[in-house]
Design a protein that fits this description.
The protein is mainly α. The chain is built from eight helices and seven strands; from the N terminus they run βββαααααββααββα. The strands form three sheets. Strands 1-4-5 form a three-stranded mixed beta sheet, with no helix packed on it.
């Protein structure tokens, strides 16, 4: 077994503390922007357009991720202590919430700034695949994304008493590591395709790949089963997958039609 004894609290001064979870979000956003920004400029976006979208998209993504997590939990504790809705240091961010919120921001920004929505969604996909990886490192240190107890040789014992793992003396499937590995594979795929595909393909490739990964990884993640033996994230992933595949096929068909117009016959 692998024993991890990292305190989720990176720095503590009196009652003030900084957690690795929060630091990894800052690192993920920063590096995600460093990777996606040059790609966005290659796509033809100006500095001013990028700044305006990022200004709204980043906070919207964080709020969306937290709120989507909260609404999937028993609401009693949050209604009795509303401040806990924003207590991200306790762990709990649902990435689909971030995706939904950022897509809405990009749709509105595309309309107001007169920019290509599909192109900007492609930029967002590259950013997300990078940022997610560092978020998973924070999850791993926190012990808040774990699988079922296991005796596999790569099972992880979260020994630190501040870890969110239910018990600190047994090994769990390292679900956060599984997700981090998938993030690496998704990023590698997107990076290889980024300058080869038409607008929109990159984003929907990411969404389809991420949704499939959630259906698979949640087989081992220790979350409550809600319907037909499936967990909430799996049900969300199936719904998103159906919509994403439909839009993906439609984009491909439109691009094929534009290449081979029916009225070419003389």
């Amino acid at each position: 077994m692998i024993v991890v004894n990292i305190n989720p609290i990176a720095i503590s001064i009196g009652s003030f503390s900084v957690r690795w979870y929060g630091l990894m979000y800052v690192v993920g956003i920063s590096i995600g922007l460093l990777v996606a920004w040059p790609y966005a400029k290659w796509k033809g976006f100006t500095e001013d357009q990028l700044e305006k979208v990022v200004y709204w998209a980043v906070p919207a993504g964080l709020v969306g991720a937290r709120l989507y997590y909260v609404i999937q939990q028993p609401l009693g504790p949050y209604l009795s202590q509303p401040w806990r809705i924003f207590a991200v240091w306790e762990g709990g961010m649902a990435f689909y919430g971030a995706i939904f919120a950022v897509v809405v921001v990009i749709l509105v920004a595309g309309w107001r700034l007169k920019i290509s929505i599909l192109k900007f969604l492609d930029v967002a996909a590259l950013f997300a695949s990078v940022g997610q990886f560092f978020g998973r490192i924070g999850n791993f240190i926190n012990g808040d994304i774990i699988g079922y107890p296991t005796k596999l040789p790569w099972g992880v014992v979260y020994a630190n008493p501040n870890s969110f793992a239910p018990q600190h003396d047994i090994a769990y499937q390292p679900a956060a590591v599984y997700e981090a590995l998938i993030d690496i594979l998704l990023f590698a795929l997107l990076w290889s395709l980024r300058k080869k595909v038409k607008p929109g393909i990159l984003f929907f490739t990411y969404i389809i790949g991420y949704s499939i990964s959630q259906i698979i990884v949640f087989i081992w993640r220790d979350n409550e089963v809600v319907f037909l033996g499936m967990k909430q994230a799996q049900l969300t992933a199936i719904g998103v997958l159906v919509v994403a595949v439909g839009i993906f096929v439609r984009i491909i068909r439109r691009q094929n039609i534009s290449k081979n117009p029916l009225d070419e016959k003389s």
